Amino acid sequence: MNSLFDYNSAVTRRQFFRKNGTGLGVAALSSLLGSGRAFPAAMEAALPHIAPKAKRAIYISLIGAPSQLDLFDYKPDLKPRFKEDLKSWLAEQGQRLTGMTSGQAAFPVAPTIFKFAQHGQSGAWVSELLPWTGKMVDDLCIIKSMHTEAINHEPANQLVYTGSMQSGKASLGSWLSYGLGSMNQDLPTFVVLHATHTSPYANVQAISSRLWGAGFLPGKHAGVALRSKGDPVLYLQDAPGISRDLRRKMLDGLNAMNQASYQAVGDPEIQTRIQQYEMAFRMQASVPELADLSGEPEHVHELYGADSKVGGTFASSALMARRLLERGTRFVQIFHRGWDQHGDLPRDLASQCKDVDQGVYGLIQDLKQRGMLEDTLVIFGGEFGRTVYCQGGLSETNYGRDHHPRCFSLWMAGGGVKGGQVYGETDEMSYNITKNPVHIRDLHATILHQLGLKHENLSFKFQGLDQRLTGVDPAKVVRDILA
Predict the structure, then answer these.
(1) 102: Cα separation from own chain's centroid
(2) Neighbours of 2 (CB within 10 A)
(3) Residue 61's domain is classified under what CATH number?
(4) Which terminus of the chain faces fewer neighbouring Cβ atoms within 10 Å, N or C?
């Protein structure tokens, strides 16, 4: 008696109905659609719930949390309050403090040392650290009233990118892949790029694949990370002596064995494995052309900046993101780390901004020139904000800031979002929101809405629950910012 064979051969009641539901039923539906309309093996992707304004999206993730006080949330009245101790005031706020500052004897006000100016017809205030961003404020909706519950990086990033501070949830890009499906069979639906930073002193937060993982969704919806140096994907080239035809035959044999296992066991992850092998085979032809930026005209490189010719930089990642979207990738996430300025903020924040400022300007203008911005949603921001009080030593030229979840800034552009507006307000110290609060769940609901998905209807049953990106807590679409 072979117990392993018996186990693999066993078909549970759930597997029986799954196989029949996605086998005979789909085959019958395919016959109704006609021979030219192949239907997917598993009916996972939902049709758009509403008319979408955007077909695709880019999320530029500033890991570490940039300071809203030094970039977008201008508070000139703080200058006369330099070094004013907020200890008693903070006690009144009932604010949870991190372990990094809770033991400080004083909490001195640290006004920004950077100059701000108004830009565009909207008159939006933008820091001198972002001169290129200042040029395009009329393309942007700057939200100054974001807020979150998380006060530390790992749970905060999980909340922003998976909708929950608990591990094991599906990421935003995976939900979009699951809900909308692919627009290109030769490239992944969800691609992740990791851009380098140039500051040698920056505090670089570690991040994990949980931020772009599929969680409980089928594995094929996980983000595919392209490497910034060397081959974009490991083992992209066939081994010496392996021809393309031989590779195809090997893959066909492997797929046949996997299909036999699926018929015996009914595990949907086996189908995922088959699809991923096929995707890898097609990527061997599509990725080398995608990653070759040498064919881009010189004026495009000038738009993104000289760094666009240097692999792995933010500028080259932004250009790569545009090329991915052009070829049908649904969602691109660019991670740029090093935004955690607990000390030496003036030095390190300036370096971080220089990394991204022209590159993101080039991306927005490039999308506009190609007629893609109107149906491409771009999001730019971190996981929480920074404190008005200084962490550590304070001088007139140097300071640091701790984590602050009660308010922070990000911006959105394109994809049906109304440009040239500033949404939300904070108090005189950029500490509490005074108008139009936007929670992370509201941001998620709005992103899904612009891509044609109602957050209440996009769900996946797992462990007896209907899982959603926005969870069970209230979430709303921020309609005031939509065109």
Answers:
(1) 31
(2) 8
(3) 3.40.720.10
(4) N
What's CA 205's distance to the chain center, in Å?
Answer: 16
Instruction: Tell me how far apart the alpha carbons of residues 91 and 82 are, in angstroms, rounded to a whole number.
Output: 19
| pTM, rounded to two decimals | 0.85
For residue 165, being part of any structural domain is answered with yes
pLDDT at residue 285 in the model: 60
Rounded distance between C-alpha atoms, residue 468 and residue 460, angstroms: 7
Q: Provide the pLDDT for residue 247.
A: 64
Residue 331 lies in a domain: yes
pLDDT for 39 equals 34
Contact between residue 127 and residue 114 where contact means Cβ atoms under 8 Å apart: yes
Distance CA 298, CA 79 (A): 44
Q: Is residue 27 part of a domain?
A: no
Rounded to a whole number of angstroms, the distance between the first and last alpha carbons of the chain is: 67
Cα(164)–Cα(160) distance, rounded to whole angstroms?
A: 8
Q: What are 151-166's pLDDT values in tens digits?
A: 999 999 999 999 999 9
User: What's the CA gap between 439 and 373, in Å, rounded?
Assistant: 25
User: Residues 6 or more apart from 451 whose CB is under 8 A from it?
Assistant: 48, 52, 53, 54, 55, 57, 176, 179, 180, 377, 415
How many beta carbons lie within 10 A of that of residue 200, not counting itself?
Answer: 7
Distances (CA, A) of 36 to 27, 148, 436: 13, 48, 50
Range 458-467, long-range pairs (CB < 8 A, 24+ positions): 458/46, 458/49, 458/175, 458/178, 458/179, 460/170, 460/178, 460/216, 460/217, 462/216, 463/216, 467/169, 467/170, 467/216
Q: How many domains does the chain fold into?
A: 1
Note the pLDDT of residue 411.
98
The pair of three-digit structure tokens given for residue 190, joined into one six-digit string: 């969800």
Which residue in the block uniquely carries the two structure tokens 């890991």? 63
296: number of Cβ within 10 Å: 17
Per-residue pLDDT of 39-95, as tens digits, reads 333 344 456 788 999 999 999 999 999 999 999 999 999 999 999 999 999 999 887
Please report the sign of the dihedral spanned by the C-alpha atoms of residue 392, residue 394, residue 398, residue 399: positive
User: What pLDDT does residue 16 have?
Assistant: 47
For 237-246, write each residue's pLDDT tens digit: 666 766 767 6
For residues 309-330, average pLDDT: 95
- Residue 245 domain-assigned (yes or no): no
Phi first, then psi, for residue 344 (nearest 5°) are: 50, 40
